[in-house]
Amino acid sequence: MSLTARELIHKLAEDTGLTYPTVAKRVNRMMKKGSGLIESVQEIAVEYKLRPDYYKINPVKIVAETEKILREDYTQTLMISAVLGQMVEARGKERFPSPAFFAFTEMLSRISDAPRDVKSETSIEIEEHTTRIIELMTTLVSVLCEWSEQGVIGVADDCPDTLRDIARAIFRKTKLLQGGLWTCISCGNIIEARDTRALMCYECDVKLSGSRSIEDRYESLGGSDRKGYGRSTE
After folding, report:
1. Residues contacting 33, CB < 8 A, separation 6+
2. Whole-angstrom Cα distance, residue 159 to residue 33?
3. What span, in angstroms and rounded, lies between the C-alpha atoms of 134 and 103?
4. Which of 8, 42, 87, 232 could share a disulfide with 52, CB 3.0–4.6 Å?
5. Are strands 181-183 and 151-155 parallel, antiparallel or unpaired?
6. What's the CA gap between 25 and 6, in Å, rounded?
């Protein structure tokens, strides 16, 4: 079973005999009109006399793979967080969608202690893992949440019960952002989006502004009650 939208669309393209760009463009058009990812893919499959139930994505497995990557190495997780934090503030094609970023922060809050520098991944390995996380998170929000032309509008009917908390958090934070509000990635307070500094509230940014350490700036990402990835203050 496919785990990402890219893998699923590749499978559909191979089975229909169409090119990947052709299928991807059509799926994107359908999703912009409010259709879900799986719904769009399955509709195309039916048109080509294919079994729609062959084209599914298991969000539970997406979460499992994401947790595995994030638990592998503490520093790697910090680096991935830094990259995604920069991308969510970027503009144009380089921008990481906010709902996917919210999914990522929810994933961070789920992981247990991530070991420090156990594997010493190379920059290439970290880049590969970052790319994989981006694909997994953009796919996860596509299947956990209900979408319309306006974006996320709720929790998908077929969202697994075990992941509904994640879907609700994504929806809540997305609605806040649509209303001009942002949840500080450090303390968790809700602030005006226009007042954020590096995704943080003014107070947290000032507290960390003198530090060049990537660990200091990103280790609290994922929950206001956490000192680091998976390490509760309790």
Report:
1. 149
2. 20
3. 10
4. 42
5. unpaired
6. 12
Mean pLDDT value across the chain: 85
Q: What does the pLDDT look like over 30-86, one tens digit per residue?
A: 988 888 899 999 999 999 999 999 999 999 999 999 999 998 888 888 899 989 999
Rounded (10°) CA dihedral 220, 70, 105, 150:
160
Half-sphere exposure of 150 (CA within 13 A, CB side): 8
Asked if residues 74 and 188 have their Cβ atoms less than 8 Å apart, the reply is no
Contact status, residue 220 vs residue 228, Cβ threshold 8 Å: yes
Helices (H), ranges, the chain: 5-16, 20-32, 37-47, 59-72, 74-89, 98-108, 123-144, 164-178, 202-208, 214-218
Q: What is the 3-state secondary structure (H, E, C) of 108-149?
A: HCCCCCCCCCCCCCCHHHHHHHHHHHHHHHHHHHHHHEEEEC
pTM of the model: 0.84
